[in-house]
Design brief:
rod-shaped; single chain; 7-stranded mixed beta sheet; 45% helix; alpha/beta
């Protein structure tokens, strides 16, 4: 007859089987040494392959065997061979070592890029007219360094910085971008330009902002610093829809010179066309359409290293040769906004 105690003992939960504790994580160098011993056939050859002495290799192998708690290699006068356990450890370690090699190769590539190449993004006006001058100064000082310049609109410059695609940016937007550090490197004025045949080229009085807002203009795309500055300046007035929206100052210059609607562009972007007589600057009453050109970078802190040097070059070059801070001559003997 079965006892109640026996029945209870069978139904009671059994304690889990105990598992031995895991050994400490082995050193990668020690695993690399073991793999090379199997491949080279001796501890001495593996040590030479790794650039260490044989006594160092022996101590490293002994420490690995002690940490894992198993014999890994048997030595003989003819060389070294793995034990059964040693061969299993080598089989398990091989993917780890292959992955480690890929990791180190990738990191070396990243370091090479960081040391030999710099990436900058600049808004179109800065990228087309100012940044090349700054680049010339920087490359004269550092002819061995490669600098990649991406020219786009200000919104894309900000996005590129946030996602880590570039190290330094230059923008023209009125608003400071959230989450980035900035400093002013230069100022720039926007001017109204038309073809010499446009009726505004014969007007005797400065244009008002209300008149400008009530005119269909050739404008830059949304996201550009030029468009942002113009939209904010004309926001108090009713606006006419754009006559045309183009993605570069050069395209706008060409359209205006060909007899299209007027446009508002950076002074530095139209200076040569005004001197050549293909565009005319129209004076505007009231305060100048002035904006700040900013360097932007990821936090924290002030720009350091090559980024800090490049920002200083931009600021110093703009102060020494501002590229058009002298007002352009405008129609009817007036001058464009100073």
């Amino acid at each position: 007859m079965r006892s109640y105690a026996n029945d209870m003992s069978k139904d009671a939960p059994q304690p889990p089987l105990s598992t031995p504790p895991l050994p400490p994580l082995p050193e990668l160098r020690a695993l690399d040494l073991l793999c090379r011993i199997v491949r080279c056939g001796s501890v001495g050859a593996a040590a030479r392959d790794l650039g260490m002495s044989q006594p160092q290799a022996s101590r490293l192998l002994h420490r690995l065997e002690r940490d894992l708690g198993v014999e890994l290699v048997r030595r003989s006068p003819t060389g070294s061979t793995p034990t059964t356990s040693g061969q299993l450890v080598v089989d398990w370690a091989s993917p780890i070592m292959a992955g480690t090699e890929r990791l180190l190769t990738g990191v070396a590539s990243l370091r090479a890029d960081a040391e030999s190449g710099h990436s900058i993004a600049a808004s179109l006006t800065i990228g087309e007219h100012l940044a090349p001058l700054w680049l010339a100064v920087y490359t004269r000082r550092h002819p061995d360094r490669q600098v990649r310049l991406r020219v786009t609109n200000s919104a894309t410059v900000i996005a590129d910085l946030h996602r880590g695609a570039v190290d330094l940016g230059f923008i023209e937007t009125v608003r400071r971008p959230a989450g980035l550090r900035t400093t002013v490197v230069a100022t720039d004025d926007l001017v109204v330009v038309t073809a010499p045949t446009h009726p505004w080229a014969r007007r005797r009085h400065p244009l008002t902002l209300a008149e400008l807002a009530d005119t269909a203009l050739v404008v830059r795309e949304l996201g550009s610093g030029t468009r942002d500055t113009l939209d904010r300046a004309l926001s108090p007035y009713p606006r006419r829809p754009p006559a045309m929206e183009l993605s570069s100052s050069e395209a706008i210059r060409t359209a205006v010179a060909a007899g299209s609607a007027p446009a508002v562009l950076s002074r530095v972007a139209v200076a040569d066309a005004v001197r050549a007589g293909t565009l005319v600057v129209i004076s505007v009453a009231g305060p100048a359409l002035r904006r700040q050109l900013r360097a932007v970078w990821r936090p924290p802190g002030r720009p350091v290293g090559w980024v800090g040097e490049f920002v200083r070059i931009a600021r110093q070059s703009s102060a020494a040769d501002p590229g058009g801070t002298t007002p352009l001559k405008s129609h009817a003997g007036l001058r464009a906004a100073p």
